[in-house]
Amino acid sequence: MPSPTPLTETDVLAAIAPEGGRPGGGADASDTAVRIMLAAADAFAANGFPATTTRDIASRAGLSPAGVYVHFASKEVLLFELSRRGHARARDLLVEAARDTPDATTALRAIVGGFSRWHAEHHQLGRIVQFEFRHLSDEHQAEVLGLRKEIDQVVADVLRAGVAAGEFEVDDVRTTALALLSMAIDVARWYVPGGRRTPEAIETTYGELAVRLVRRSVR
């Protein structure tokens, strides 16, 4: 896995909140809570969830451990909030990418390409969201899995529309959707900022690859 690169406030907020906004939802969305989430994301990216302590997070946020507990009951709750918000943001981006497209081919290219670019531009947060999942409680895992199913559904719906329109040839829609999303998510694992592959190039390549994998053959 590539070496960690520092997370910035822009990186995290762009991934967990609407553009130009602050995180919403039922959890505390105060400026202090946001600062704690930024600190937690930075600590998890640098050290991994198991090795990160509440004291580490508090230090990065410029608070005492007690100051963290005012807003979040545990570091697991922080991981959950990052995961929940990250998944919800990714779902919304996919829905937006598919909206108002002229056909299923264009929609699929936009969805997979955009999802791949997101995991390049936010690769550190993407690694946290995807690869620290096992450390969530059963209840929190279930909620995040629900969001993952919504993401799967967006892609599956586009694939079905493409099959119905004669654009795609897909035998197993669910498995194909999973394969395409997994391909995009894996970008977070290997992406290195400043490398040969830019987020824009990844978007183009992966979007086109997705279409080629499902395009109906001309016989």
Reported CATH architecture: Orthogonal Bundle
In CATH, the topology is named Tetracycline Repressor, domain 2
CATH superfamily: Tetracycline Repressor, domain 2
How many structural domains? 1
CATH class (first level) name: Mainly Alpha
Portion in beta strands: under 5%
Q: What share of residues is helical?
A: 55-70%
Strand runs, count: 0
Calculate the mean pLDDT score and round it.
86
Q: Uncertain runs with pLDDT below 50, 5 residues or more?
A: 1-7, 18-28
List the helices and strands in order. HHHHHHHHHHH
Structural class: mainly alpha
Gyration radius from CA atoms, angstroms: 18 Å
- The helix count comes to 11
Distance between the termini: 42 Å
- Profile the largest sheet: none
Shape: elongated
Protein name: TetR family transcriptional regulator
GO molecular function: DNA-binding transcription factor activity; transcription cis-regulatory region binding
InterPro entries: DNA-bd_HTH_TetR-type_CS, Homeodomain-like_sf, HTH-type_TetR-like_transc_reg, HTH_TetR, KstR2_TetR_C, Tet_transcr_reg_TetR-rel_C_sf
Keywords: DNA-binding
What does this structure look like?
The chain contains eleven helices and no strands. With 219 residues, it is mainly alpha-helical. The longest helix is centred in the C-terminal third of the chain and has 27 residues, at 138-164. The model is unreliable at 1-7 and 18-28 (pLDDT under 50).
Record the SSE blueprint:
Elements: H1 9-16, H2 31-47, H3 54-61, H4 65-69, H5 75-98, H6 104-121, H7 123-131, H8 138-164, H9 173-185, H10 187-190, H11 199-214
Helix pairs in contact: 2-3, 2-5, 5-6, 5-7, 5-8, 6-7, 6-8, 6-9, 6-11, 8-9
